[in-house]
Amino acid sequence: MAKKATFRGRALAPEESQTALFVTDEQMIALLGIPADVARAAIRDLDRDPRSGFPQKIPSWCERRWWPAVVGYFEHRYGFGSDAERGRTAEQARTTRHEIDQRTREQLIADAIRKRDAMAESIREKAPQKRK
Question: What are the sequence ranges of the domains in the chain?
Fold first, then answer.
């Protein structure tokens, strides 16, 4: 069972802990509803990997994490957020991302061809002219 969120030794009421912007790891664990030992191990792993994107503790805010960023991390991680807010299904979001990726690939290829052609033209202009 997860520990209750506390502040200075006093248990926080559910509405207090859910509106706090900066939370301790204990408050975060209580709000997430995950067994404390499992949550601590997962948080430790996320903190060790700088590429995880998990919100870091902020020294100027008493080593607490910004709760909206924590929620945002999990919404992004599990496919909620902007697509869900727009009423798009996961399949629609994947299709759109694929189309964007395809257009991006095509644009990158076209850009590379233009650069190659410009470089070839530049080399031709600098090359000594052959006399007939």
Answer: 1-78, 89-127
